[in-house]
Design goal:
There is one protein chain. The chain is α/β, with parallel strands linked by helices and 243 residues long. It is built from seven helices and six strands. A six-stranded mixed sheet has the order 2-1-5-3-6-4. α6 packs antiparallel against α7. The longest helix has 24 residues. It is globular.
Length: 243
């Protein structure tokens, strides 16, 4: 006589906000932030890193943040869902090959011109910005978002020159040493542009809590927090330059 089939385990519920399995959710500790600059996060629909992804957690923090999942939108206004008069007053984290370390620049945020060179009048350019666009996904997914949305060419290109490496550490290897998570990139950008170090402190603390929770769950429930894929297979786009 054969053994009865074991009952399938009950599915673990997801948080409706961050969409992580509940044991990985830290939404109850999110500190709201009133931001002057608007934040738009474009997430590739195939970005499926529920365990270590930070886009939804990031959006939860800000009063003025929009998260869109998809491949393309006709314009910045359509992506945001409301009219924008001048896309050049929005920054986009640039996907080109320019590296702050190679440009001999100071500061963590650097504006570029169309040629990928350091733009003149950095203070004036960065001071007029009204919002920031971040691309969320693997490196190739972020590049797909860039090429499918030509309106980004109208935005101000910026790269990051982070003072510290990503807190991901060995949990996720970035394609470049200056690579950051989406939440870390937003922390650097918004804190710097708004001259509010409290923004970076709040976002980085939240990210630390996520990583701590991930490590705890990985030890107790490895199926919910699997080990990251080997180097060369998974890449989270957050370039600190930097999706």
């Amino acid at each position: 006589m054969s053994n009865p089939t074991a009952a399938a385990p009950e599915p673990i519920p997801e948080c409706p906000h961050c969409q992580k399995p509940m044991p990985l959710c830290i939404c109850d500790s999110v500190t709201p932030i009133e931001n002057r600059l608007s934040l738009l996060i474009l997430q590739h629909p195939q970005e499926q890193d529920r365990a270590l992804g930070t886009a939804r957690l990031l959006a939860r923090h800000f009063a003025d943040a929009t998260l869109r999942v998809g491949l393309s939108w006709p314009s910045l206004s359509k992506a945001l869902g409301h009219p924008i008069e001048n896309a050049s007053h929005w920054a986009v984290l640039y996907l080109g090959s320019a590296r702050a370390a190679d440009l001999d620049v100071e500061g963590e945020i650097v504006a570029l011109n169309r040629k990928g060179e350091v733009a003149e009048n950095q203070r004036a350019i960065l001071g007029k910005l009204e919002g920031v666009v971040l691309l969320d996904g693997t490196w190739s997914q972020a590049k797909a978002l860039w090429w499918r949305n030509p309106w980004m060419l109208k935005c101000q290109r910026v790269i990051l020159n982070p003072a510290h490496p990503s807190r991901y550490g060995r949990l996720r290897r970035e394609p470049r040493k200056d690579g950051l998570s989406t939440i870390e990139a937003a922390a650097t950008l918004l804190a710097g542009l708004e001259r509010r170090p409290d923004i970076a402190e709040t976002l980085n603390a939240s990210f630390e809590r996520l990583l701590t929770r991930y490590r705890e769950v990985q030890a107790e429930m490895p199926e919910l927090a699997p080990k990251p894929a080997p180097k060369g297979r998974r890449r989270d786009f957050r370039r600190g330059k930097k999706a």
